[in-house]
Amino acid sequence: MPKLIANALLFQLGWLACVFAGDSLWLLTVAAIVAVHLLWIGRWAAEGKLLISVFLAGSALDSFLLNLGLFDFGEPRTLIPLWLALLWLLLATTLNHCLAWTARPWWRASLLGACAGPLSYYAGAQIAGVGLPYGTWQTLLLLAVIWALLMPVLHGFARLYRSQYEQSVRARQST
Questions:
Q1: pTM score of the predicted model
Q2: What is the pLDDT along the chain (175 residues), one digit of tens a residue?
Q3: Cα 71 to Cα 88, 147, 164, distances in angstroms
Q4: Transmembrane region positions (predicted)?
Q5: Would you kindly state where each structural domain of the chain is located, as residue ranges?
């Protein structure tokens, strides 16, 4: 239980560092959080593929939404800022830990995604000064649909990589 609480608190600390600090040296806080996570809560061998996959897939998704005009960072850009990309890395650290309870049944992940996803974007946009050109409610509804679909997929990544890791451990133990 202490590791689950620490995982949730580290995620929140990282979220706050990202949205308040933007692309500044404070983002090194995220590196420290991921290091603490991998040294104490999780393991690189067990979660490395998950962290990289969620970071890349989430960054690609948000960059796609940016190019659709869903977000306005106040300057022309085709890729999301680093602080937003790092939020995906932080989210990945929670999937096998403090958010594991949402993996099954699948609707828990969908419900969490539909509610918490848009609220996180809204709060982050307000703090970081990100514009929502399509309108707040329209953007939040679209994000709710996306996140309702996305969270079960992310848990599927977590389950797949966890299974691969467990198989490799069993194979090493049997030799």
A1: 0.95
A2: 899 999 999 999 999 999 999 999 999 999 999 999 999 999 999 999 999 999 999 999 999 999 999 999 999 999 999 999 999 999 999 999 999 999 999 999 999 999 999 999 999 999 999 999 999 999 999 999 999 999 999 999 999 999 999 998 888 888 7
A3: 16, 16, 36
A4: 26-43, 50-68, 80-99, 111-134, 140-161
A5: 2-174
Q: What is the DSSP letter of 139?
A: H
Which residue matches tokens 């061998």?
Answer: 45
Long-range Cβ contact pairs of 18-21 (< 8 A, separation 24 or more): 18/83, 18/84, 18/86, 18/87, 18/90, 18/124, 19/83, 19/87, 19/123, 19/124, 19/127, 19/128, 20/127, 20/128, 21/83
